Predict the 3D structure of the following.
Amino acid sequence: MAWRFALWLLGITLCSLLLLWQLTQARSFDSSILALLPDTHRSPAEELAQQRLIDSADNQLLVLVGSGDSDQATTQSLHYAQQLLQLLTDSGLFEQVQGAPSEADTQQWQNFYQPYRYHLLTPASAERLEQRDSQLVSDSLTRLFSPLAAAIAPTLVDDPLQLFQQWQLASLPATSVSLQDGWPSARDQGRLYRLIVVTLSDSAYDFDYQQAVMQQLHTLRQQLPADIELKTSGLILHAAHGTQQARQEISTIGVGSVIGIVLLLWSCFGRPSAVMLAFLPLLSGFLLAMAVSLLLFERLHLITLAFGASLIGVAIDYSLHYLCAQREHPQQSILPRILPGLSLALLSSGLAYAAQAIAPFPGLRQMAVFSVLGLIGAWLTVVCGLPFLSRVQHLRSNDRGLAASWTSRLERWQGYWPNLQSWPLKAWSIRLTLISLLFGLVYLVSQQPGSDDLRLLQTSPQALLDQDAQVQALLGSPNPSQYFLIQGSDPEQLRQREERLQPALQQAMAAGWISDYQALSRSIPSRQQQQRNYQLYAQQVFSATGLLVDWADQAQLQPLASEARQRFRQTPDQPLEFADWLQQPVSQLSRRLWLGSPSSGQENGPVFSVITLSGVDGAAAISRLSTLAATDPNVVFVDRISDLSAVLHHYRQQLSQWLLLAYGLVTVLLLCRYGRHTWRLLAAPAIASLITLASLTTLGIPVTLFHVLALLLVLGIGLDTSIFLYDSGNSPHTWLAVSLSALTTLLAFGLLTLSATPVLHFFGQTVLIGLIGVWLLAPVFTRQAPAGAQSDSGFLSH
Amino acid sequence: MKPLRCLPFITLALCMAVVSVSTRTTAEQVATAPTPTLEQIASQLQSKPVQQGRFEQRKYLSILPKPLLSNGYFLFQSHDQSLNDNHRQLVWQIESPLSSRLTFSKQGILQEQNGQQQWLARGDQPGVATLGDVMTALLTNDWIHLQRYFGIQVLPDSNPHTWQLQLRPREAPLAKMIERIEMSGDDQLRHIILWEAGDNRTEIDFLPLTSVSP
């Protein structure tokens, strides 16, 4: 016994040291729901696209300084934007704080493309040239005679029909941000917003950094007058909120449940030593789980941690059984007596937890590992630590009355409580009532719609999401969740495929499904298209019978026309090459659309690009867009949201089946030991689960994947209860232990119902209803007398 | 025709503008007749708001020996009764040498010709749209808007009944297209000269309306 204790002590010390070392690393918790979800169904190209679109934005923080649109207000907002920029820069927290983009950028952009102007046409212009549309001439002349001429006059010789100018307009990403008083600003609904782009210097998940940034933003907000608003958007805000919520919930729900449990145990055992012994397995289990999990996973998810709270209820079972059994047989070594039951309980709840690991959800796997580790830690403590400790401490064997009074009170209650054995089950009326009740439940459960909506799992508060959406819409940022993925053997073929898709995208824009799209081929058309454009210019514009003749005739612009023709002839027919373009700073805006080859080693592998979409107009638009990709096998429409919803749906179904299978497996397992009494053990968790589902249906709460997972816990924990109760023949002491553990589990797990994190809330909800059900139902189905002392007379035997 | 209602906040903005303008012009006031303030000019213009009129445009291009001539009419239309600036649009109808209609609004510049419509510039794209915005503001005497784009200076004028203004762009992108704008008139805007980049310029004369067939 002593050496076992020494080993246990050594293990605990090691774990403590490990944990201490890890905590000095100051890592924050993961709070994103996406981290919970599986990485399945993603091709390497899609992976890369995701990285470019989402992850690159992760270290950015967008700040908008909003004011009214009056002259005075905009002057004021400029002043505050300048002040903020200075303060943000001075804080030293950020790698870069940027207000105005340099004017040189636009100039540089125009200068770069200028030599290639005869190779660049919008698809619409190319089509009109193809048809030799005389309207092109009158359009151009109209502009020339209009007050707009100032914008086109300087380039008349280079671009007489303004087709290059139109290409430029179409290629520059549409954004409502423009320079106002030298500051990038956007107008929306009568308000003016000044934009500041901040690049983080550290990870958005780093706890200390998060706190410093949030503190800085808070201070800045305080300094602004009430009529100047500050809108922010960035991953770090969500991460910081997650951290704060986790801390808050640990300190309310966590502390609340610990206090509740201590009070409960105190009122029952009346001795601090017993309370301490009851808690010890729990603490060491948590220690082991925490230390090893931090070692195994890069970052613990906040949900894992809160889920860890559920261990309290399960792990405390072990110590309670030990203590209660010891109370019953104070002079004996009780470990051998309870070891089989304890081990079976560890096995069954361990299996229930471990079942989560079969779903390929990284977050759930983490929870499963954490929980199983915790249970093993608690079990080891009871087996190795408690016998030694309880002897050293030497429990004064006689009850001091408190627990005894609880026991007798519970015993009396047990007497009133219905039990199937004592009921005249043969009476048809009762059978009929029970069966119709059961059918009622099954009917309600069958009406359960279920839900796989990703938004249900959103951990960030609506206000934060709204602000995000508003900022993104204002800046016309591309949608990171829906995009086209295009494949080709080389950049040329890739862009040709993009160009084939473009007419459909133009139509989608005209129909309002999207507000805009960004494609590589819009910044640099395929060589094939460029050559075609050049030919169109030569034949339809600058030839002796070209449109330019009409153009000059209509407005007596012959000198201009001949100079323009000469300019065209002097310009070499040299298309813009992709490789050259990629090297230039002008490609910076579109470069992220080019994915290249995702498998870096391969020289001749396929290359990929993305076409991003802005302002996607709802679900109907998404389904229409997805049909656009169907015509070309090399174009894939990626919809991350619906992909993830589909994944959630898939696993909800699979886990529901697994739940049924688990019942089947457990039945087989139990049949070996309990024979035809097996149903007595299964009835409580099964019916409690039905009641849970029926209640959720009645309350109008759709069942999610996470509800189903929690039902696995109801099975695991409920089975524990039933086994303990059955094995002891419903003895008052076991009833006490079972009731205590049910209450502690409810205090620990049921309190999660109060959590603002949807996933935890769902778990809590399910376990709360389920375990109350188990606790109330288990005595109904169990045997009354001590094992073997009474003849069996069960529901099934009649 | 609805009269152009006086916008109350114009006065407020003008008060601010006038402070800077008047200090700059005090020295010159001594030599010539008293130069009116921008506020006075604005109120003079407001007394007879223009809803429509004819224009004659001369476009001088450095590359062409003769100016490009065009004429037509312009008018303001309202989408709704509120006469809110955001809902008003300017129709610029060229009648000669070719027939074409441009509509300037917050949404951008729309070109209509032979029954076909085409966007020349969208409001969300910088560049040409800015120019359209400036033109609308010039013709509606929207000083708030103009001051956003330009520094406005009152030039001395010997005739007490007429005035001259000079506008210089504040932002580089606009300055690349327009060097400066000169406006002159009496109780109405009569003449605009846009001094453009590359030695080009556009002169527009505004004449009273004789006949309009919208």
